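hiii, so i know i said id send this last week but things got crazy w the move. better late than never?? heres the sequnce for the chain we talked about at the cafe, plus the structure i predicted for it. fair warning i was half asleep when i ran it
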Amino acid sequence: MQRVITGILMALVVILAVVKLDGYWFSVACGAVMTLAAMEWANLSGLSRPIERAAFGVFFALLLFGIDRYLSNHLLSVQVILGAAVTWWLFACFLVLRFPASKDLWAGRFLRLMIGIIVLSATWLGLLDLKQRSIGLIFFSIALIAFADIGAYFTGRTLGRHKLAPEISPGKTWEGLLGGAAASMCLALFAGLYFGVPPLHIVILLALTVLVVIFSVVGDLTVSMLKRDRGLKDCGKLLPGHGGLMDRLDSICAAIPLIGFVISFSSWGL
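okay and structure toks below
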């Protein structure tokens, strides 16, 4: 029951934030969430003392402020940071499939902290860009990720036979991945037809949806990989019944930069 209540409250907070907050306060709210997530990522990176995690959180918050000022002066492209995050998640596909043999490639504390900075700042920028373009894009993006998670859960429970990454998350299966992709593609197809999207653009949307699902799963597995390496069950205790923020943001932190990166080259909106 605690998990359900927390989930409902989180959904209400997200809806209110997206609908009610203007650009500046939405930026501040998302920045605060990403800063708290950064403190959890610091723990995943090996900073076990609270003072170390707090210091990293302060550093990350100041970094977001600097990025915001830098971008406002047109000295840095959002696409560069989003592209860097997309590149990392593509590489992470290899890491999770090769775990634990791949551990030496990401074991360094400094490297993991740098990855966290790129991933979380890109998620923040991606959300801000989507909000600026259309509220509907944010809700649609989150819905795609949620449908993938729900579809994977039920398909995996009923049909799951072949393990996806048994060394990281024994419960995840290839059948679940396909079920999640099917659920998200149905949502994307419905949205495309409902909004009268041209057939060619629907095909592109479906292809992007498949990538979003893959990235969301890789995000989940990557955080699980880091938790396993650190001997942690959850990323934190901030969300009763759910664990930490990164336990809920893992898929979002992988999918949002991808969506933001692709849409930054287009004029899509909802």
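btw The radius of gyration is 18 Å. thought thatd interest u
miss u guys!!
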